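Appendix B, record 7
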Amino acid sequence: MNSPQLESQNPSGKPGAAAQSWVITAVIAVGVVCVGIVVLPRLLRSSTGAGADESPSLPSQAEAATPIESEKLRPTAVVVSANAPTLEPVVAPPPAPVRRSQATAETRQMVEGLTRPVQPGTPLSAEQAAAWKQQWQQLVAQGAGGLPAIRDFLEKNQDVMFDADSARMLGYPSARVALFDALREMGGPDGIAGTLEALHGTGDPGEILALARNLESMAPGGEHRQEVAQAAREALDMAAHGDLKGYDVGPLFQVLQQAGGVDSVAEFEKASGQWNYYSTMALASLPDGAGIPSLIRMAQGTSGARTIAFEMLAQTATQYPEARAALVDMARREGIPPTTWAYLGSVLGGDQYQFADAVWQAAQDGHRVVRMKTGSIRHGNQGFYQGPPIGGFTPEQINQQTALIDEMLGATSNARAVQSLQTARNSLSTRLAGITQPAPLP
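Structure tokens (predicted):
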């Protein structure tokens, strides 16, 4: 899969911004076809980390480079009161063993063919790619009969990363992603059951997002949203306690924003200390403006999320009157710090914050993605894109944004504010001209 062509640029001078550009979540590893078998850490979602009120320490750069294993779930102790009446012990019959279907030799061979590494550096021929795709289709055609072989591979907690050229020819960055999609393609109760089983067995943020999308594709309408949201919550709790060092948790915020909805407001607020960008971006994306009151409180406070909260209010001001009124009022009362205006100007001029994986997925789905800037924040290992919304601005959207800027210009005489607002207005004029001017004659 190819990533959209994007301009690499760091957010302008914000504290904590990394000097290098952020690389998109779905990066294809270099090196079946593949670089070899990658053993993944066992990510058992667990509540045995630090206490809920403890502030998790941020990983050092050296620690962040290597994912670690989380603790396995511990059994719950049974406490018996000393004053409880004595009862004759009742011996419950042992639970009946759950019989799992076994993979057939044929389906096991299919999965092995899809996941067998080839010598690194060996180019994949068109014939090999065609044979791989045919075998994938044959596995999908097995339906429920193919599930045991897929399950057996996924439970090994291994992956086979395809090199960039091979991934482009096969359509998948790795074997696990290909098998996830095989489950989606099977569909029906069998595909859903296999996908749910995979969801319950992983704490990898990217995998949780991919599986959530597949479930929504197979069962539209949010039938499994509660399970999806719970998986994301448990993984985010692991990350907060340091159990997902080196992982980008941005996909978890996307999942919670989509599956958890308004019930995730408190979680996003709590997470803003460790992931200030991700949490405010998710709050801004909640339906019906459910996150706007939280953003207003953050903008009026003193936390590390204050500046980005202002930016999210600017990003949503033409959509939600509450955000617009708060932003204009704070501008009128000189409630916006002077150093924040440059960042507000960038957003008001059309550089909207977007989750990196959302942009990448939109490009894969064939949507128009306008050239964007990338940004990375070392604190919390956060990465994002900035640019026009997916599909680009419409003239009406630009005119609405321009009217907002004019209202803010009428509310403040602060020199920095006026300069940033005028720059934003000029940027919108340039964008509008690019949309409305006729195409040159051939």
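Remarks on this record: The longest helix spans residues 415-436. The chain has 19 helices and six strands.
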